[in-house]
Amino acid sequence: MRSILDAARERPGGDARVSVEARSFPDAVSATEADGRVPIIAEVKPTSPTTDGVREDDPVELAQEMVAGGATALSVLTEPEHFGGSTESLSRIREAVDVPVLRKDFILREEQLDAVESDLVLLIARFVGDDLEPLVAAARDRGFQPLVEVHTREELTAALAAGADIVGINNRDLGKLEVDLGTVETLAPEVPDDVLLVAESGIHTPADVRRMREAGADALLVGTAIMDGNVRQNTRRLTTST
Ligand SMILES: O=P(O)(O)OC[C@@H](O)[C@@H](O)c1c[nH]c2ccccc12
């Protein structure tokens, strides 16, 4: 199989520039907090390089179950070759729910932002390098709320310099694929208070949720632990683990 990045480099952009009216993620996070729940971004991830098997259920039904379980927002993989995602399922999901939807993909070039509408769009600092600042601006110009993903202190510095106001700290090292929840604990103190901090990956139990919240995460991005089994119950268990 081609590497994720080789595949991403060749993926086309959209035919026309999109202009989205984004559902506010910060507002959704505040509303969840006011409701006494933990803000969780639940991820629709049919498969991944670190998961066994493929989940064949209708992605729209999975998404609706996540919202019924109290998810604040959804993350939808649109990468086709390694994660079983599609831009089409993202569009169908976004139509079917009211919560903000994050497009999870490996965007490297501005035109790739035009492949599909979403509320948030993921930009991975490690992969975009020096293009981060122009991509953040290009995403905002289209109405997207960019979520900039980092894993190291250098990437966090670059994300803040690029003007990111929603930062995801990935506990998974995308090079080695190893997960360490200590990543968020180490880097969270460096994130300014006016930046929304999302803890990503490797969060499985209510104890993990509490640990990431204590470290300072405003919201948590959870894939595997929600996709594995009863999606609504799994989401509920994590959104109520205060
Ligand atoms: O399944 P997990 O460990 O809960 O992780 C979810 C999410 O953080 C992970 O899918 C992810 C984080 N960053 C990414 C970048 C690309 C693809 C996937 C990801």
From TrEMBL:
Q: Name the SUPFAM superfamilies for this protein.
A: Ribulose-phoshate binding barrel
Q: What residue intervals traverse the membrane?
A: none
What superkingdom does the record give? Answer: Archaea
InterPro entries for the chain: Aldolase_TIM, Indglycph_syn_Halo_TrpC, Indole-3-glycerol_P_synth, Indole-3-glycerol_P_synth_dom, Indole-3-GlycerolPSynthase_CS, RibuloseP-bd_barrel
Pfam families per the record? IGPS
Q: Which pathway does it serve? A: Amino-acid biosynthesis; L-tryptophan biosynthesis; L-tryptophan from chorismate: step 4/5
Q: What reaction does this enzyme carry out catalytically?
A: 1-(2-carboxyphenylamino)-1-deoxy-D-ribulose 5-phosphate + H(+) = (1S,2R)-1-C-(indol-3-yl)glycerol 3-phosphate + CO2 + H2O
Q: Which UniProt keywords apply?
A: Amino-acid biosynthesis, Aromatic amino acid biosynthesis, Decarboxylase, Lyase, Tryptophan biosynthesis
EC number(s) per UniProt?
4.1.1.48
Which Gene3D superfamilies did the record assign?
Answer: Aldolase class I
- Residue span, Indole-3-glycerol phosphate synthase domain: 8-238
Entry-linked HAMAP family = IGPS_A
Protein family according to the UniProt entry: Belongs to the TrpC family.
Name the chain's protein.
Indole-3-glycerol phosphate synthase
